[in-house]
Write a structure and sequence with these properties.
Length: 222
């Protein structure tokens, strides 16, 4: 994951700030893409990093559905989001998590994956989830969980958010070896790299001028 970034709140007045209806459309679009990617991973029995990866593993290892697990895992983090990233971020993130939780339950009924190639699935699934997350990030939202905790730990205790996020992702993917065949885990690692590359190449300072309240990413000063 990207890091070494501080996310600062600004209030631009140059006409670039996103309107509320643009945020609504973006959250729906981003969550639809993430839900489609997650559904492809569920169909192919892949894992990924972050809270959605943990939810996938628990879904594979338990009788509970992904949506319920994903929603429940995120519940403890909304207070941190509200206090550290602001009410707007917390509310939008809650909405995004709720939508993904519901959409994943229905996407498999809306689309058929008969004949889906496993190598194609891991690449396009990673691209879909990365693009969906990127859209959410652009509009001051996210999918909660580990990202929020990483920001809190960096601010409160000086633990670098990127290293923490990477460590959690590695632990989740290592845990996948106890749930999935080794070849599925290796492909899952490739998919996680693709997902992170989508975000790393497209969510960088100076490359985007639209705001939603808004995010500006500045390099952290030493």
């Amino acid at each position: 994951m990207t890091t070494e970034l501080e996310l600062n709140m600004v209030a631009p007045n140059d006409g670039t700030q996103h309107k509320w209806h643009e945020d609504v459309v973006a959250i729906i679009t981003g969550t639809l893409l993430v839900a489609l990617g997650v559904t492809m991973y569920k169909h192919s029995l892949y894992a990924t990093g972050g809270i959605n990866g943990l939810a996938l593993l628990l879904n594979y290892a338990s009788p509970f559905g992904f949506g319920a697990i994903f929603f429940a895992l995120n519940l403890p983090f909304y207070w941190l989001a509200w206090k550290r990233l602001g009410p707007a971020f917390a509310i939008k993130t809650f909405a995004a998590v709720a939508l993904v939780s519901v959409l994943v339950q229905f996407t498999g009924q809306w689309i058929s994956f008969d004949g889906l190639n496993e190598y194609y699935a891991v690449i396009i699934g990673g691209i879909l989830m990365g693009t969906g997350l990127l859209i959410l990030f652009r509009h001051k939202s996210g999918l909660g969980g580990i990202n929020i905790l990483a920001v809190f730990l960096q601010e409160q205790y000086g633990i670098r958010a990127g290293l923490f996020q990477m460590g959690v992702d590695i632990c989740i993917l290592i845990g996948a070896f106890f749930v999935l065949p080794w070849d599925k885990v290796l492909l899952s690692i490739a998919g996680a790299i693709v997902l992170n590359m989508v975000i790393a190449m497209n969510f960088r300072p100076g490359r985007y001028v639209g705001f939603s309240g808004a995010f500006v990413a500045d390099k952290k000063k030493p």
